[in-house]
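Recall that a protein's primary structure is simply its ordered list of amino acids. Everything else, from secondary elements to tertiary packing, is in principle encoded there. The following example makes that idea concrete.
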Amino acid sequence: MLDTVNYFERGKRSNLFRFEALWLSKKECGTVIEKAWMEGAGSAPHECIDLCARELKKWASKTFGDIKKRIRSLEKEQLEAQSSHIDAMMISNCDGEEDMLVRDLMSVEGREWDMDKIEPLFPVDLRPIILAIPLSNRVRNDVLLWKCSKDGLYTVRTGYWLAKMSSVKGNLAVRDRLVHRDILQDASCHICGGERETIIHLVLECIAAKEIWAPSEFQDCLVGAPRSSFADLWLWLVRKHKADVVASMVTLMWAAWRCRNLIIF
């Protein structure tokens, strides 16, 4: 949109102007736009916009250089930082900040990083990596969504629909089921090596599943739950507990299934 002059005469040799989100990390970006717009005062709107685009390109080239090369360089630095050991300085800087969240490092509006908060907590080599991470222009709180419904809200109806799926019918590819279908000979759990790997064992009773459930507040919600089959367990849950509780419990079950697959595959 910004590059409007001789649009149809450029052919494939010239690309449309592209505004990079990284530019917003510098306050000078707004100054460059304002200055270019004032210089184009009295010109046609598209000419003013084209002037802004040219000035932004010049400024960005001097300030950031090649964006793609810079991103690759920052990604390399990030990998090196992640593989390095945490030193005493980093520990002392983060002391007392156990409850700090990523959003605490952002401005009040949540649309840009707050350098004053980042500097005391992170070493110099990590700061540019953090500042290069783009932030969303929309400020929203995190919410739980139920992916089995169009509006993201859990309902008993969508719960019963899910009960018709193969996992609830007992057709999930756990070892117990694979032995029943003569695909495997051993049904013992691949993780704990003891019990038969049924769906119930996988999502609730395996040592890996117990580690997932232990820190949560939902263990008591399973007291009295049937363990004969996952279908019985599921119907009991949707009748016994509120939608938000069931949604959280489903998330933990999915985490157990995913962890199992990551270990095996």
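The chain has three domains: 7-63, 67-131, 156-264. The mean pLDDT is 78.
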